[in-house]
Amino acid sequence: MKKVLALFLVVGLVLAALCGCAQNAAPATSTSTSATASATTTMSTTAGAFPVTVKDASGQDVVIKSMPQSIVSTNVWSAEMLLDLVSASRIKGLSAWGDNEVLSATADKAKAVTGRINTTEPESIVALKPDLVIIDTFSDPDGALTKTLTEAGAVVLQMASPTDFSQIRAAIATLAAATGEAAKGQAIIDEIDAKLKAVSDKLANLSEEKKLKVIYYEDYYDQTGSNAGMLAAYGKESPFQAVADAAGLVNVCTAPTYSTISKEKIIGEWKPDLLIVPAVTFGQAGEVVDDRGATVIEGIKADPLLKTLPAVQNNKIFALTEKYRGSTSQYMADVVGELAAIAYPELFK
After folding, report:
1. C-alpha distances in angstroms, 232 versus 215, 250, 261, 300, 310?
2. Are strands 227-232 and 218-221 parallel, antiparallel or unpaired?
3. pLDDT at position 27 over 60
4. CB-count exposure of residue 156 (10 Å: 0-12, 13-18, 19+)
């Protein structure tokens, strides 16, 4: 039981880090901050000369008086956006997972940023003297961190973790405006659209009847192949739903996102043609182990219930590139083509 609880803790810390988990310019100021919010962020003005005004996750205005030169990102998805928008020299702090090559698509760029922060230790952020801090609403549910950082002189921009491509585009536009990089932001958005169009063009003649049923099945199997009892659903409002839709697949999971689901429901009701599983497990010390899903797949094939699934019987169990599969930044578009090619290889020759 202690081992299972420890694994839950490790995964929880990773999720917090991913989602919510030089010269310093004079601190900018904000007209308002938000304690909690869930609405999609949007750009409220055209980026260019400062000051600029952007909307936070609650829809409140955040005024940024001058171009930020000392930026801190507390989560991986916004760091991926920022590292493609601005020079690494303007970013002073990232989460500890920001330079993990398995989990972050911009790990190489992140290595140029020396500061590492933890949202449970506000002093680590304040010490970097940031003029703009990007916080996922998941990381600051009661607004205490936002209050502390604002009182220390930083502009705090709370943003909700995107769950689909429309929200990703909006988040990029917001960060592009906030950092004075509107042209780069639009270029990133255009690249997302180009990648998605390349896939949709190949799927143009795929009828609804021919679309395969899919589930992303997240269950933890340790290094011995033993099931540790963790199971989560990725339903209609999850990032996987957006990926499946764009890849021409039908996500048959109808359970609320991240809720526990039974194997019996998968076997008796959903019956996926394709099973997507995590590419990674976690070692005893909490380190990320990328085995391309081998541990999880072995455990599923040995499970007396799951091995009756069509996906298992037809050997249609796959792991995707984790740094793209787990991304909710512009890099989520990269996993769409990967998944579509796995599902319909004849269309991607």
Report:
1. 11, 18, 6, 15, 20
2. antiparallel
3. no
4. buried
Alpha carbons 116 and 63: distance in angstroms, whole number: 26
pLDDT of residue 3: 32
User: Which run of H or E residues covers position 336?
Assistant: helix 332-343
Spell 233-264 as b/e; 16+ CB within 10 A means b.
Answer: bbbeebbbbbbbebbbbebbbebebeeebebe
Find where tokens 């042209």 sit: 183
| Rg of the Cα atoms in the chain | 21
Please tell me whether residue 186 adopts helix, strand or coil conformation: helix
Angle between helices 182-202 and 332-343 (to 10 degrees): 10
Four-residue CA torsion sign, 38, 244, 267, 12: negative
pLDDT for 231: 60
Q: What is the dihedral of CA 322, 94, 112, 55, to 10 degrees?
A: 90
pLDDT of 97 reads 79
Nearest to 332 by CA among 240, 252, 257: 240
What contacts 151, CB < 8 A, 6 or more positions away? Answer: none
Residue 86 to residues 110, 144, 304: CA-CA distances in angstroms? 12, 28, 51
For strand 132-136 and strand 71-73, is the pairing parallel, antiparallel, or unpaired? Answer: parallel
The DSSP bridge partners found for residue 116 are: 94
Count of C-beta atoms within a 10 Å radius of residue 305: 14
From CA 114, how far away is CA 88, in angstroms rounded? 10
Burial of 54 (0-12, 13-18, 19+ CB in 10 A): buried
Residues 6+ away with beta carbon under 8 Å from 49: none
- When the pLDDT of each residue in the chain is averaged and rounded to a whole number, the result is 84
Using N-to-C axis directions, what is the helix angle for 332-343 and 165-179, rounded to 10°? 160
Contacts with 96 (C-beta within 8 Å, 6 or more apart), sequence order:
17, 116, 118
Query: What is the β-pairing status of strands 288-290 and 280-282?
Result: antiparallel
